[in-house]
Amino acid sequence: MIKVASVNLPIDEELVIKKERIVPLNPTGNEKRISIVTGTHGDELEGQYICYELNRRIKNNPECLKGIVDIYPALNPLGIDSITRGIPAFDLDMNRIFPGSENGIMADYLAHKIVEDIKGSALCVDIHASNIFLMEIPQIRINELTKDELVPLAKMMNVNFIWVHSAATVLESTLAYSLNDIGTPTLVVEMGVGMRITKSYGNQLVDGILNTMKELGMWTGEVNKVCESIVSYDEDFEVNFINASSAGVFIPATKHWGKLKKGDYVGDIVDPLTGEILDKITSPCDGILFTLREYPICDEGSLIARILERDDEI
Amino acid sequence: MKKTILYEMKNLYRDDMRVTGYQFGEGEKSVCVVGSTRGNEIQQLFTCGLLVKTLKKIEKAGLINDGKSIMVIPSINTSSMNIEKRFWPTDNTDINRMFPGYALGETTQRIAGGVFEKINDYKYGIQFASFFMSGRFLPHVRMMMTENTSIEDAKKFGLQYIVKRNPRPFDTTTLNYNWQVWGTKAFSVYTHETANLDENSAMIGVYAVLNFLSQTGIINYSMHRGYNSSVINADEMYDIQTPIAGIFQPLCEVGDSVSKGQVISKIIDPYEGKTLAEIKAPEYGNVFFMNNKQLVYTNQILFKLTDDYTIIRKAENSEQ
Ligand SMILES: [Zn+2]
Fold first, then answer.
1. How many domains does chain A have?
2. Which one of A233, A262, A289 terminates a domain?
3. CB-based contacts of A312, cutoff 8 Å, min separation 6
4. Which of A160, A171, B218, B268 sits between 20 and 30 A of A202, alpha carbons compared?
C-alpha cells in the first residue's frame, strides 16, 4: 500500500488516500502506467468490485504484466464509510474541486495530491456508479473537446455505449477534466447503480481494462473478447430523456438495455394512496434504453429513463 | 402589496411546495429580492420577512415611486427548510446550482427554471446568500465581476464593504450569475449568520436594501446614506488557515480590528486540552469572516481579514 495523501483529522484519526501499485516481475524501468481510480462519490460502489477483481486477475498471472498498475479504490474514504456522496463535513462534491491546490483547505489539498499522483499515467480510468436513483449500462462519457484522443481508447474498454457530450463549464472542475487538461488521458466510466455491486458489469469492465492494457502493450495474458460500443455524439440529438411528469412511485415495465419502439410501454408512475396511475410512460422514440430509474419514489422531474435513439438494427 | 404564488410543485405525500412572492408598487420590474434558496438559510428568510414588513408600511405611506415595482421572494426552497436539510430532500441537489433551470429537466432544474422565468427581467436583483464555508460575516455586498456589474450601483447599499470577485466554473449555474447573463444587475447581500438568527444584522440587511431602493429612485424615502463603502477584492483578503486540526477557540469577534502579531485564536488538543497552535494575525486588519465550526481540519480557513490598513503597513515598511 502506498499513501497518496494523508491528513490528520481533529480527533486521533489519520485520513489516508491509499493506492496499490502492481509492478511487472522484471521491470525495465520504461513501463507505461495505468491508473484505476474510484470512490470519489461515497455512495458509488461498483468500482470496489472492479478494483478487487483486477487485483486478483493480475496477481494470479504476474508474468503477463508488462506495465505498472496503480489502483486507487477510495478517493473519498470518509464518504464511503458514511454513505455520503460528497465529502462529509465539507458539503462539497469531490468531483467539483479539481485540480485542487497544495495550500488549500483539506479537500483542495487532497484533490491536488491525487492529480499529482496520477499525472503522467498512459491512461486513467475513473469509475463511477451513477447514483442511488438510476441504473446505467456500462458506458464511457467523453467531453467533445477530447473525443479525438479518447474515443479510440474508449472503444477498447468493453463498454456498451460511448456518449460524447458537449462541453459544460461546470464540468471543468472534475478529476477527468483536470487530468485530460494536463495531458493524462482519462476515461470516465458510469455503470450500474449507487450503493450496490452489479457483478456482471464489474467483470465486463475488468475484461475491458485488461483488453486496453493489452492494446497498450501492458498485458500479455488472455483477454476475453470485447463488445463493440455504440458511439453517440450530442449533436445528433440521439439521447432522449424521460422525466417524471408527476410525483409518485415508479413501477418499471421494461427491462434495462432493452430495445424499444416508439410508443412501447416503459412503466407507470402510480399513487399508492388511491390506486391511480398518474403517468403511463411510453418511449418517445425507437431506441435502446440505457438508463432506467431504480429508486421508486419520484418527484416531478425525476429522471425515469434515457433512451438512445436508433432506427437501425431494431 | 400583492401576494402571488410564482411557482408550485406537487409532491406525493407532502404538501405542494409553493414559491410565494410579495409585490409592492406597480409598473416596471425594478428590483427582485430573493431570500433562502437552501434549507438552512434561516437568517436569509428572516431578513426577507422583516423587509416585507417594512415595505408594507412604506407602500401604505405612498412612498413607492410611480411606475416602480418591487418583488420579494422569502424562500424558494420551503421543502428543504421544513425538514432542516440544506439541499433538496430527495436527491440532495442545490437549487442555487441549477440556474437558469429547465422546465423539462430534473426536479430542482424545474424549480429554478420556474422561478427564474418570473424574475429574469428585473432591472436589479438582490439575493440574501450564504457562503459555502460555514461562518459569520461582516455585512457586505458581494458581486461577481462581469460586464454587467457596477461598483457604483453596489455602493448604493451603503454597507461598509463591497467584495468583488471573478466568477469561477461552478458559479455559472447560480442565480446571481444567470441574472447577470440575462441583463439584470445582480448583488448578493450577506449578513452575519445563516442557520442562526441575528436580528441586528438582519436589520442591517433590510436597511441596506431600503438604502438601495432609495438611491435608485424606486422608493421616495430619505434615510441616512450609510457607509461610503470600501471595495475589496476577494482574492486580496488574508485567509488565515489553521496549520493543524483540533478544537477551534476564537479570541476575537467578527468586526474586531486586530493588530499584526496579535493571537486571534488557539487550536486546542481535544484529548489533553493543551494548545497545539496559536494563530496570529499576519497584518493589521478587520475580522471580516470567522469560521463557526468547533472542530477544524488542517488548512481550514478560520478567518478572513480585510486589508484596510495597507496604508499603515506601507508607512511602517518605509520606516524600516
Ligand atoms: Zn460519481
1. 2
2. A233
3. none
4. A171
Judge: A9–B297 Cβ closer than 8 Å, yes or no.
yes
In this structure, are A141 and A157 located in the same domain? yes
Cross-chain Cβ contact B91/A131 below 8 Å: yes
> How many CB atoms are closer than 10 A to CB B309?
19
Q: Give yes or no: residues A246 and A119 share one domain.
A: no
Domains and CATH numbers, chain B: 2-233 (3.40.630.10), 237-319 (2.40.50.100)
Within a domain: residue A314?
Answer: no
Measured between beta carbons, the chain B residues lying within 8 angstroms of A302 are 90-91, 106-107
B108: nearest CA in chain A?
A: A301
The beta-strand segments (E) located in chain A are: 2-9, 13-22, 33-38, 68-72, 123-128, 134-143, 161-165, 186-192, 230-233, 239-243, 248-252, 259-260, 265-271, 276-282, 287-293, 297-298, 303-309
Nearest to B169 among A11, A103, A173 (CB): A173
CATH of the domain at A289: 2.40.50.100
Same domain, A130 and A246: no
For ligand 1, the distance from its centroid to the CA atom of residue A113, given in whole angstroms, is 19
The answer, for A11 touching chain B at a CB cutoff of 8 Å, is yes
- Distance between Cα B97 and ligand 1 center (Å): 17
Chain A residues with CB-CB distance to B298 below 8 A: 7-8, 106, 109
Per-residue pLDDT of chain A (314 residues; tens, 9 = 90+): 999 999 999 999 999 999 999 999 999 999 999 999 999 999 999 999 999 999 999 999 999 999 999 999 999 999 999 999 999 988 789 999 999 999 999 999 999 999 999 999 999 999 999 999 999 999 999 999 999 999 999 999 999 999 998 877 778 899 999 999 999 999 999 999 999 999 999 999 999 999 999 999 999 999 999 999 999 887 665 889 999 999 999 999 999 999 999 999 999 999 999 999 999 999 999 999 999 999 999 999 999 999 999 876 54
Ligand 1 centroid – CA A43 distance (Å): 8
Q: Indicate if A248 and A118 belong to the same structural domain.
A: no
Of the candidates A233, A253, A276, which is a domain's last residue?
Answer: A233
Distance A126 CA to ligand 1 centre (A): 9
pTM (2 d.p.): 0.92
Please compute, for residue B254, the number of CA atoms within 13 A of its CA located in the half-sphere on the CB side: 18
- Rounded to the nearest 5 degrees, what angle is found at the Cα of A266, between the Cα atoms of A262 and A272? 145
C-alpha cell at B266: 488557539
Domain that holds residue A69: 2-233
